[in-house]
Automatic annotation (TrEMBL):
Organism expressing this protein natively: Ruminiclostridium papyrosolvens C7
InterPro entries according to UniProt: DUF2304
UniProt-recorded name of the protein: DUF2304 domain-containing protein
Keywords: Membrane, Transmembrane, Transmembrane helix
Transmembrane stretches, start-end: 6-24, 36-57, 69-89
Domain of life per record: Bacteria
Pfam assignment, any one: DUF2304
């Protein structure tokens, strides 16, 4: 792996990790949503610290350039994060719909009583 790329990935990993931890500390981000981001930033740092891992992984899956293997792993990880957040949004949407229906029923009952 190119030294410049290695340093860039290392910096991005540390910046991302410190940003996520500060957001959790200031309660701008809940811990359960930050875990995947923390793992992602730690993966950045591990990949930068041990450039043999991308070489090994690239050879394993048949990618010529290890940098492309790094980007593939990161893209897959980000897809996992997006899937996790989509599931959370779907659950919240269902809860809001159920609450709106419950409120409508309660209002209807109140109108019938009065």
């Amino acid at each position: 792996m190119n030294l410049r790329l290695q340093i860039s990935i290392l910096l991005i990993g540390f910046i991302l990790l410190t940003s996520i931890l500060k957001m959790v500390q200031k309660t701008k981000l809940e811990l359960k949503y930050s875990i995947l981001w923390i793992v992602s930033s730690v993966m950045f740092i591990i990949i930068a610290a041990f450039p043999v891992i991308p070489d090994w992984f690239a050879n394993l899956i048949g990618i010529i350039e290890p940098a492309n293997a790094v980007f593939l792993v990161l893209i897959l990880f980000e897809l996992g994060i997006n899937l996790n957040l989509t599931i959370t949004v779907s659950k919240q949407t269902n809860k809001v719909k159920n609450m709106a229906q419950y409120i409508a029923l309660m209002e209807n009952q109140n109108r019938e009583k009065s």
